[in-house]
Design goal:
single chain, 2 strands, about 70% helix, about 0% strand
């Protein structure tokens, strides 16, 4: 009885959050399964069509292109994690003004994506600062449409995602670094270990749980990337920056084809689940064991 009475306050505190998650996350996920098997109509009659939406999806060239672009976006993940770890190591020091550097690195994370989009759109426009600098330095003879050229648009958006997420993962890794006992580094220094050896044999192994967690959420975020494309390019030019999340939005919200959009969402969810399982398989035990 005492255990139940102790658990009651905890459940009471969690109840509002669990209710929000149930209504806005779990229920839509569960409801999307039967919805994907129908030809849903807002005004007309909704009919059961079985697996037709899934068959249509794999014959839809635009959806296959959006999947390819989303999978290609995964290239951001290893670069983002590596740079975040290096930045965390860099700012994990007690030098004057280091807190200001940490705050500066984190500012893009808390900045609205709309504000970020306006800034980068101004910088990367044909008459923007980036083209002006490149032409001034003699690196190019003509203005480049960074967001309007098929060969560059997706990679520019990858860079913006990298720039905006760097501070977030840096702070997570910084928390992991500060949990590593200092005496491990002191013992390694006494044994003559260099900086690179300390990072390889102490820092990285003890950061493995953080690396796994950050890689997992970064992987899911890369597959589901939406804001950058929606605000800056809306999938263009053509389908160069069309991602799965944006295409699902276009089918469900713009065209009101909720049945087809639900089927697309389930396919993307299965892909994310499969990639997450692969990441779990590569994970190894690590971290700081206080016992």
């Amino acid at each position: 009885m005492r255990r139940r009475s102790d658990a009651l306050p905890a459940w009471s505190f969690m109840a509002p959050g669990l209710l929000v998650i149930t209504v806005f996350v779990l229920f839509p996920i569960v409801y999307s399964i039967p919805l994907s098997l129908t030809n849903y109509s807002v005004l007309g009659e909704t009919r059961f069509i079985g697996l037709d939406n899934f068959t249509k999806a794999f014959r839809d060239d635009d959806f296959l292109i959006s999947l390819y672009n989303s999978v290609l976006y995964i290239m951001v993940v290893p670069v983002l994690q590596l740079l975040s770890i290096l930045m965390a190591i860099l700012v994990n020091s007690r030098i004057p003004g280091i807190k200001a550097f940490r705050a500066a690195y984190y500012i893009p994370v808390v900045t609205s994506m709309v504000a970020v989009a306006l800034m980068w759109n101004w910088l990367l426009s044909q008459n923007g600062v980036v083209n002006y600098i490149l032409i001034s330095l003699g690196l190019t003879d003509e203005k480049i449409g960074w967001l309007t050229t098929s060969s560059t648009a997706l990679y520019v958006l990858m860079f913006i995602t990298l720039w905006k997420g760097l501070g977030y993962y840096m702070m997570l890794y910084l928390a992991g670094l500060q949990s590593i006992p200092a005496d491990l580094y002191e013992a390694a220094i006494m044994d003559g270990a260099s900086q690179s050896q300390r990072i390889r044999h102490i820092t990285i192994p003890l950061l493995r749980p953080y690396i796994f967690f950050c890689s997992l959420i970064s992987l899911m975020g890369a597959i589901r990337v939406f804001d950058e494309m929606f605000v800056l390019t809306n999938g263009g030019p053509g389908t160069a920056t069309l991602t799965s999340s944006l295409y699902i939005y276009q089918q469900g919200i713009a065209k009101f084809d909720f049945g087809y959009a639900s089927a697309l969402g389930l396919i993307v969810s299965v892909i994310i689940g499969a990639l997450s399982v692969l990441l779990f398989r590569f994970n190894r035990r690590g971290g700081v064991n206080p016992y």
